[in-house]
Specification:
alpha/beta; globular; about 160 residues; Rossmann fold; single chain; 7-stranded mixed β-sheet; 5 helices
């Protein structure tokens, strides 16, 4: 069994933010999502896969990920986290295992709470703004344009979830 987590912020005003690319890509993978308060997450199940969208803000998502892993008796090696990455060009996708957070606070929180970085990550490029245009912490909270959302939606994320 695998746990696939889409990182993002849970409020409607963040729905189209660059930082929410994990939510954006994981949400369509399942037909029915159920809010599970004790796990602090929205959960969907498909045969041998559990999909998860933490209902806490991204930088505190480690608690929800830990609760879901424990509830389903899974280990960090069963975990795949889909998240945004400033260091990759827009729409470039890379798979990684047992890597550091590279400054991503949501990923770092998961590492801190789990006490390990031995899990899988699917990094989705959102590009990086020029330094004189916008600080990264503001850029990630900007909405994608309609055109950018269309390109993100065209990513076949399932092909990157095979480890």
């Amino acid at each position: 069994m695998k746990l696939i987590v889409g990182l993002g912020n849970p409020t409607p005003e963040h729905a189209k933010n660059r930082h929410n690319v994990g939510y954006i890509l994981v949400t369509p993978l399942a037909d029915t999502w159920k809010s599970v308060g004790k796990l602090k997450a929205d959960i969907a199940k498909e045969s041998d896969v559990i999909f998860c969208r933490p209902s806490e803000f991204m930088n505190s998502s480690g608690s929800a990920v830990s609760k879901v892993l424990n509830f389903y008796k899974l280990s960090p090696n069963d975990l795949i986290v889909v998240h945004d990455d400033l260091d990759l060009p827009f729409c470039e996708v890379r798979k990684q295992y047992a890597a550091g957070s590279a400054g991503h606070k949501g990923v770092q929180n998961i590492i801190d709470v789990l006490g390990t970085k031995e899990f899988y990550r699917v990094r989705v490029g959102i590009g990086r703004p020029l330094a004189q245009q916008l600080p990264p912490e503001e850029y990630v909270l900007q909405d994608f344009t309609t055109e950018e959302l269309g390109k993100i939606a065209s990513i076949n994320i399932r092909e990157y979830l095979q480890f």
